[in-house]
Amino acid sequence: MPPPLSVSKLVLAFVAASALVAAQPGPDEDHRRSLIADAEAARDAGLHDRAVSLATQAGQIRWTPSLRMLVAEEHLALQHGVDALDHATHCLVGAEADPSVRNRARIISACRAIIDLLQPQVGRLRLVLPDSPPPGLRLRVNGRELPRSAWSAAFPVMSGTALIEADGEGVTAFSTTTTVFGGAERELRLRFTEPPPPPPPPPRVVSPPTDRPSSPR
Question: What is the pTM of this model?
């Protein structure tokens, strides 16, 4: 019976297989390269929103540390701190795990610099919901909808004032703010109230009878 493969050998085999797949030309890879070229052109033209959109489409085909770096830098230019930190973290982890990454030292340095810049500015916010949240509940934090997977979990937000908005079926929509500090976690308990009953209808106005002159007899 052959000896079991060690974890390191499995990792090397996975990296080699991934590199082989990436090297195979195909319509998806051609489209991906075109998207990246367009994203870089948008970046150079200062169109950072467009650069993020194009690069993210390329990432949906295949992410690499260099592509993560591009998206992180563009989010940073747009002052999207949480998104920039997320992509920079993926970039750093991917580049450090794969020695075959081209321009690896530059990518690691750039992504680590973004992380070092943003980490002190990012805190975590945890929204505490009732045991039975209202049906159709929607939560938004700083204008962005919070996915259900993040409900009651601590998620990253930029330090400062965070705006929380909520609405659902059978409850009054409301908004509130809380202050989040970098490197700290903030907990906010949400309470929902039923909407007030509709106002009663206005009283019916009955016109008094008018005296009509009697007809001659």
Answer: 0.71
Residue spans per domain, the chain: 7-120, 122-189
pLDDT in tens, 126-158: 999 998 899 999 999 999 999 988 888 999 999
Q: Are 56 and 78 in contact (CB under 8 A)?
A: no
> Cβ–Cβ contacts within 10 Å for residue 35, how many?
20
Strand order in the sheet with 122-128: 155-158, 122-128, 185-189
**Class for the domain spanning 7-120:** mainly alpha
Assign a CATH topology to domain 122-189. Immunoglobulin-like (2.60.40)
Rounded to an integer, what distance in angstroms lies between the CA atom of residue 35 and that of residue 66? 14
Which helix (H) or strand (E) segment holds residue 52: the answer is helix 48-61
Cβ pair 163, 175 in contact under 8 A:
yes
